[in-house]
Recover the amino acids of this structure.
């Protein structure tokens, strides 16, 4: 004999094994229903009792989601173009031409191999290098063409 806890969380029983088999077939009990063997102190799930486990439907198969497409590999030269462009704009304008050349070469490589990513890095490197070069040329022209602009700096030109 057995006792069960129904969906309404009430205890029912004692119930015969034949009645439990019938309720499983009718769908009134499932693998997660709680059951207690007469005389036992602990509640178990119906699926844990071997006399009823074979009557239960197999568990549903896990849902398989399609794998996300892999992101294209970033062109290394595009990353270097961006890095040197940032470095050029922050402190060393001498790296501006390097950034521009690396960016152009990266765009060329990406055009030949469309499975590569990094087009945005390459373009950003070209833009940062160009802006840095423009700033450097402007500062040098101001220094050469307008006398006394940098006279307040020690040694004439800011370092």
């Amino acid at each position: 004999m057995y006792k069960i806890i129904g969906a309404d969380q009430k205890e029912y029983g004692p119930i015969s094994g034949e009645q439990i088999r019938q309720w499983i077939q009718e769908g009134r009990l499932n693998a997660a229903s709680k059951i207690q063997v007469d005389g036992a102190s602990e509640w178990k799930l119906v699926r844990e009792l071997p006399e009823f486990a074979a009557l239960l439907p197999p568990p549903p198969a896990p849902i398989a989601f399609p794998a996300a497409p892999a992101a294209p590999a970033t062109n290394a030269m595009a990353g270097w173009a961006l890095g040197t462009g940032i470095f050029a704009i922050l402190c060393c304008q001498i790296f501006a031409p390097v950034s521009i050349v690396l960016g152009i070469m990266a765009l060329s490589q990406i055009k030949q191999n469309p499975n590569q990513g990094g087009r945005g890095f390459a373009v950003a490197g070209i833009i940062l290098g160009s802006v840095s070069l423009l700033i450097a040329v402007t500062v040098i022209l101001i220094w050469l063409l307008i006398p006394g602009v940098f006279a307040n700096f020690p040694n004439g030109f800011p370092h």
Residues 2-53 form one domain. Strands lie at 2-5, 11-15, 34-37, 44-45. The chain has a mean pLDDT of 85. The first strand starts at residue 2 and ends at 5.
